[in-house]
Amino acid sequence: MTRIKFFDYLLQYRDIEQDILEAVKMTLESGRLVLGQQVLSFEKRFTEFLGGAGHSIAVNSGTDALTIALMAVGVVVGDEVVTVSNTAVPTVAAIRMAGGIPVFCDVDKHTALMDLDKLSFCLSEKTKAIVPVHLYGNVVDVDKIYDIVGNRNIFIVEDCAQAHGAKMGNRMAGTFGDASAFSFYPTKNLGAYGDAGICFCLDSSLAAEMRKIRMYGLQDLYNSEREGINSRMDEIQAAILNVKLPYLPLYVDKRIKLANLYNELLNPNIQRIWVGRDVSHAYHLFVIRVGNRDEIMVNLANIGVETYVHYSKPVHLMSAYQFLGYSKGSLPVTEGLSKEVLSLPLYPELDESLVNFVCKKLNNMSS
Ligand SMILES: *Cc1c(COP(=O)(O)O)cnc(C)c1O
């Protein structure tokens, strides 16, 4: 039987194995395991990747990157932070770690992104920040959020965990807001071999705050200037990411190519997620919407095609977040999407013939 995995890092690893092993060996022999040359070099090169201006601060995970960015812009206990419930739970976990109270804006049915027509109703005197999530690698119009916010003192922190390489016009996702956060969890468009993440911002004093927060709030070796956490990226993960970063544009191109192939081969009656006119989608995930989603998922699994759902339980309906006071019906579009969305296998090394296979089967199932 054909077996099509949803994600398989080993295919990519085989291509770059020698360079990875050499980089890890060199790092282990360097005598420095945290915040050394590899991290510095990766930070510099990631900033280059985003266009060259600004500052990158390498941290331990995407969740930490968001937490640190929110702490740095000044979120404290009791501040409201507007985001979406149609996201990975770490978006919300990070807001809580920073002390914020998540306020959920419903999403647009077609793009699955924050519905900017509903955003102004989510703002209050207590709103300190907004976290737009560039879900699936699709891009939220952050400029429009600034227009909506007007001259209120609200910071925008982009969740770019799924959007490495996504663009609006020729600007990279992650460079629109006051700060942004990327994850290098192994499945992401740029994946480490363990946990890692990065904060990015254009403002140098904000970057200095993030650098302090990353390491106990230390200004120098002996004095914590503010309260911080420990979230350093280690040298080994940075060395691995340094090997992989040059391939990122190529990886994203391959994702786009495979997504285009899905779009070309799938029956037009199968609903897609809409992409804005100026948006270059980074296709972390290729998502379709189908009414009989659970049935299709089982049928695909039975012929060896692994699929996932992003996300089947909106965060506001999870047990852990009941205290926020939302319930079934609070966010109708988000809840509706959670019953329809289905993510198909997509990674740079996926063979086109397998995409062909998936499409043929899916077309039969949905006709
Ligand atoms: C993966 C992900 C994160 C968290 O990243 P980690 O590195 O796993 O902590 C945050 N937000 C979104 C949307 C994600 O997909």
Key words describing this protein structure:
alpha/beta; 38% helix; three-stranded antiparallel sheet; seven-stranded mixed sheet; 367 residues; binds pyridoxal-5'-phosphate
Topology (elements, then pairings):
Layout: H1 9-28, H2 37-49, E1 55-59, H3 62-73, E2 80-84, H4 89-97, E3 101-105, H5 116-119, E4 127-130, H6 142-149, E5 155-159, E6 167-168, E7 171-172, E8 179-183, E9 197-201, H7 204-214, H8 235-244, H9 248-265, E10 271-272, E11 279-280, E12 286-289, H10 293-302, H11 332-340, E13 341-344, H12 352-366
Parallel strand pairs: 2-3, 2-4, 4-5, 5-8
Antiparallel strand pairs: 1-9, 6-7, 6-11, 8-9, 10-12, 12-13
Helix pairs in contact: 1-8, 2-8, 3-4, 3-7, 9-12
The structure holds pyridoxal-5'-phosphate.
Overall description:
This protein has 367 residues and is α/β, with parallel strands linked by helices. 38% of the residues lie in helices and 14% in strands. The strands form three sheets. Strands 1-9-8-5-4-2-3 form a seven-stranded mixed β-sheet, sandwiched between helices. The chain has a three-stranded antiparallel β-sheet with strand order 7-6-11, with no helix packed on it. The longest helix is centred in the first third of the chain and has 20 residues, at 9-28. It is globular. The mean pLDDT is 97.
